[in-house]
Amino acid sequence: MGQNKGMDPNRRFLFRRSSLAAQALVQRPPGALPEAEFVELCTRCDACIQACPPQVIQRGDGGFPQMNFKTQGCDACAACLPVCKPRALREPASFGDWLAQIGPACLAARGVECRICGEACEASAIRFRPRLGGVTQPELDAERCTACGACVGGCPTQAISMARR
Ligand code: SF4
Ligand code: SF4
Ligand code: SF4
Q1: Residue 150 alpha carbon, nearest atom of ligand 3
Q2: Check: CATH 3.60.20.10 for 98-164?
Q3: Whole-structure pTM over 0.70, yes or no?
């Protein structure tokens, strides 16, 4: 059950300002409207959280839903969209301008062979090119990446995060 239906307008305004400032850091559920509209419409009812079969949506700051890919990724089932009554989530069920980014903690960057993320990516957005005299490195194809987060949880060094393009 959501913690509010009628958020105090002043609190909503303040949250909206702080949320907008942090919007580059928070990945909303698929189909989310741009952050300003999303925060305006979302009632924090938790319906999307409860509707998500793989449970990859969690309550974030202020009770607003955000993605959590620690255990698995979004399978694009779109079950979260129709349950959003204020229509803060709308078709298409995509993550807009988000994509994965591979950071310096990657084992391959330290000379250790690892291809776990590439095996997890159904979109084949992470490729490992043969490399003479060294360990092959993961390369992200930004055009293919759907920001599904399937690569995040399996990385043994938590080297993968989600970012805006
Ligand atoms: S599309 Fe499906 S798997 Fe992805 S967040 Fe929505 S309910 Fe969860
Ligand atoms: S799973 Fe993590 S450590 Fe392994 S190649 Fe991918 S980013 Fe690097
Ligand atoms: S977030 Fe991108 S790179 Fe990672 S599994 Fe999904 S499509 Fe592949």
Answers
A1: 5
A2: no
A3: yes
**Domain 1-95's class?**
alpha beta
Q: From 136, 86, 87, 79, select the one nearest 107 (Cα to Cα).
A: 136
Verify whether ligand 3 is closer than 6 Å to residue 121 (CB atom): yes
**Three-state secondary structure call for residue 100:** strand
Rounded distance between C-alpha atoms, residue 67 and residue 80, angstroms: 12
Average pLDDT over residues 5-24: 61
Helix (H, G, I), strand (E, B) or coil at 51: helix
Are 1-95 and 98-164 the same fold in CATH?
yes
Angle value at C-alpha 22, between 96 and 29, nearest 5 degrees: 35
- 33 CA from centroid of ligand 3 (Å): 21
Ligand 2 binding pocket (C-beta < 6 A) is: 102, 106-108, 114-117, 138, 155-157, 159-160
What is the per-residue pLDDT for 33? 96
Q: What is the pLDDT of residue 135?
A: 93
Across residues 56-68, what is the average pLDDT? Answer: 97
Write the residue with the smallest CA distance to atom 7 of ligand 2: 106
- Beta carbon of 29 within 6 Å of any ligand 1 atom: yes
Identify the pLDDT of residue 113. Answer: 94
pLDDT of residue 132: 84
